[in-house]
Amino acid sequence: MTFRDLIRNVDLTAYRHINESALAEEDRLGFLKRLQVIELVAAGESGDNVFRQTNIPTCEQTRLLKRFLAIDDEGEPVGDRALLRYHRVKPYERKAPFRNKRSQQQGSYSGILQVTLNKYPNVHEEFAKEVISFHSKFSGMKFDKRIFYARFLELLQLSGCSSEEWPFCEKAGGKRTIEMYIDTLLHSRTATSEKMQCNQNLEESSGATPGLITAQQPFDVVQIDAYMVDAITLLHVEPMPGFYVSRTLSRFWILGAVDTRTEGVLAAKFVFSSEVRMYDVESLIIDAFLGNWQPNPNLTVDGLVYRPNSGMLGYLLPETQCMQWGAVYFDNAAAHHGNLIKEKIRDKIGFAINYGQLGQPKRRSIIELTFKQIAQQVMHRLPSTTGSGPGKGRVKDPEKNAEEYEVFADQAEEVLDVWLAGYNITPKQGRMMSKSPYEFARDCLANKKLNLIFPRSQQELCNYIELYQDIEYCVVRGGGVSHAAPHIVVDKARYTNDRLKKTPGLIGTKLLVKINPKDLRSVEAFLPDGESLGALTVLGYWRNTKHSRLTRKLINKAFRDRTFELTQQDDIVLSFWGHLEKSHSKKSRLERQRLLSEWANDVHSPRQAIASEDQSTDDLPHTGDTARCGDKNIQPTEFDARFMRGSFTQKPGGITDGHD
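RESULT FIELD:
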């Protein structure tokens, strides 16, 4: 039976896969012309009649019919996909015999993988089975392809592949080719169907989304996630008292913690960094657990005030402070997998950790919805918004608007804080029964009929310093050839005090050291018998300026990489600040804002010291209530007041902008 006879006995609709309207004009015309040939032949037209109508000769008609009726590697008909330009119906087959390459020769290995798999067919069967099985069971989990690469080589060796054959004779071991082969297996329809079947079986057996914990009462499940701010703001730097210098700031984050059952916000903060670090997550968890939020008494935005009886849940309901959580939902961000989160915070507070699958934000739907409202009702209203994506809400010249309307990062923090405080007392529809998060949590705590139990952590854990402290063991160093006084080393800096210096007998002793990661200028040390040695002070150029453990790690890395010079011999932290001031990169601006936030609550703020070093006049100063921007006098609160007047109208089920 010829191809012409076969095409007349098939249903063409089963062979149609392409939406021609999605093709480019030139490709669409060629595709439709070739498709017309198939339809005419299927309708019973002769080759000559088809040629007269399409100008495609009989030999080319036969070739198109053969491609159209071909079967792909998955056992499915290729159909009209074969009519697209450059579409390969069957894989490339190497015909040239294998030869070892010369020392400087490149290429000459095209199709060698398929030749190897044809020679050792059991390797393909076994390897594909292992890869697809892993993909089905652990879909969404990040894994290292080097593990499967090593397994592929092992299977080849077991099948008798010699060291003179590919890939063992190849200099790079064929690693890139084999990893592309792994990708092909993972994206094959067989892997996709097995994954879907596996997920379907799991859902049918559990009756719910796999691994999902149902929150029956407040604090059963807390969701934590980060949202990248879709706006450009200004970094508000004060190089001289009363004078302000502006730097544009982009790509920073909002980090939030939300209770699943009440949908109330426990804590939130801006993270001025290109990526969220585990130290930021640690700080958020501690703030949410302690519930130590307080209203900002010094709001600088004109007309911005907290709604009456608004705030975070821990502030509105003090009895929820230090309440134990059942589980915490994280995504698979690297910051959430740090030992600081998985061990220290989990063990101290006592919650379970649930990492969601990749591409499954519905596991954290409550906080995702909260971030969506923040984006729509706060961030996307800024005149400097960059929108939610390319072509979606980005205003024209957001950098220029950030300067013209003076959208400062610290003022954006104030707006967010007030908005979230009001969010917790805003009624919601649906399962919240038109109650606000605060009202729902209050009613659950007061409910006597359900006999709900809300366990609280031990009193000694409800301590900010105790939760933040890192515990390490350090060996006392000193003596020897250097004749150095007894000391310990923490993060590449020496610590000692008068008592330790006068006790050389402690050299070699392991001390328990309590470290406050917020301020590394001193640590507390204890002898093995529990006796305190008191506070040990850092030596050298670390001792003058307050700095966190993160800051020290960043400075050590920059100093090791020789990316900045020690301009102040007695203060490496201020030298690092000077280095950031000289750099105009976005990363440096974010680090400056982070350092300013780090120094915000320090009574001995180093800003005055910075002022003596930085008298830069590259930017026009900002004083009082009026700033000079080009040839215009701009009131800094003009936009803020206009923004605030229409942003906080509340209604049951959500928040509206007051203009609906």
